[in-house]
Amino acid sequence: MLSKGKSCVGLGQPIFFYLEGIWWLAGLTVTALFLHATALSESILGGLLAVASYFANHAECTRVQWAPNQRENFAAPLLLLQTWLVSMQLRDSHRRTTFQLQVSIFILNCLCLLFWQFSQFIFLTQTAIFFVMEQFRVIDRNQRYSITYHRLLSMVSWRS
């Protein structure tokens, strides 16, 4: 047996230094869900109902309690925040969206791509939906250009 000064074993238990961060991100998931549902329903009751539904169906909504070290647990709250901000950008169609909102969407896109390799497919699906929305005249071309620009810029910066 090695002496205490020369052992690399440490405490003898695996250290999961990021678990506390995972639990905070799981809490951020609920917060992002509440913000998104409140914004879409324009009512706090809608946000509370969404959070209650999330907790009632928790086993089907997430796997964070069984496998906290999966990469999707890092990206899921950021994806919800990103969709909330994109919804805010689409809702604000009559005036230009603020630069801070666009930078926030760009940063969240980059973080999602950094944390989870399947985020690119979610962003591809979102972009396809925005093309369909433009064809049905739900959004105008400038909004789609702005959203597509953020997607491409985050993809290029992620790949660099």
From TrEMBL:
Please give one Gene Ontology molecular function term for this protein: mannosyltransferase activity
Sequence intervals crossing the membrane: 15-35, 98-116
Q: How does it sit in the membrane?
A: Multi-pass membrane protein
**InterPro entries recorded:** Dpy-19/Dpy-19-like
Q: Which GO terms describe its cellular component?
A: nuclear inner membrane
Subcellular location(s) of the protein: Membrane
What UniProt keywords apply to this chain's record, in alphabetical order? Glycosyltransferase, Membrane, Transferase, Transmembrane, Transmembrane helix
Record flagged with keyword GTP-binding? no
Q: Does the keyword Membrane apply?
A: yes
Q: What is its main location?
A: membrane
The protein's matches in PANTHER family, at most eight in alphabetical order, are given as: C-MANNOSYLTRANSFERASE DPY19L1, DPY-19-LIKE 1, LIKE (H. SAPIENS)
Homology family: Belongs to the dpy-19 family.
Q: What is this protein called?
A: Uncharacterized protein
Species of origin reads: Helicoverpa armigera
Q: Which gene encodes it?
A: HaOG210910
